[in-house]
Amino acid sequence: MNFMIIRITEKMTKKYLKLFKRFFIISWQNIYVFKFEFLMVFLNLFFNFSFIFIFWYTLLNHIPKFNGWTFEELAIYTSIVFMGEGLSGFFFGFRDLPHKIINGELDKFLCRPINTLIAILFEQVSVIYFIEQFIVSIIISIFIIIKYHMEVSILNVIYSFIILFIGILILNFIYGIITFLTFWCGRLETFREIIMQVAESKHYPVTIFPKKIRFFLTYCIPTAFVSYYPTIVFLGKEKFGLIFLIKFLILLLIIYTLFILTWKGGIKRYESNGG
Asked: Is 0.90 topped by the overall pTM?
């Protein structure tokens, strides 16, 4: 019995990995065919990084240590934030989902012999967004570490990436839950935009905010888990043991359960374009 379950799981995993690879290639081809746009994407990333680095550099010229942060630490902080945004590119399918729900355009996904939600997400996987944000951020982090002779523990780096990955899942599952409310409430673009604007606070260390706002950005819209916590672990500024990770995983499980329940409840209410 256990062997059968393992075999079925293995076949399903191979099937979805193959499917993901196909969508990955299609996404790459869609952007690479437009060479100028392809270059502009990287130019845009360059300006984004440059603006933030110039901002921190200018600020620290007037305040040598910004709430305990040095320039090189803030540069690593920014790189980790952009890494997280790169990973979020795998959830781009949520962006246009309300339009598909309202206009009854989910039929093509419901008819496919694969998980509907996975099909929606895979179709809009942004390869270029992943490459420009995640990989470039890693390169910049390595450059900063070498240039400023920073001492970084491999274990801290691994633990930091684990926290970042879990944080990205939690934040995007919350975003997904809000998106699924479209099944009940109709258009929610403005509300989603407000949440995303609040999430932009991840570009700044949570310690610069008052205590109540820190609590909000940690436990209500947990942007701190995709920016502040991965960074302080990466830099070795604080140690978090196994208990912290277990609590974090429990939070992920709770949010994921709500995510799946909201999706299943919503898809039952879905009506196609033909009624």
From this structure: no
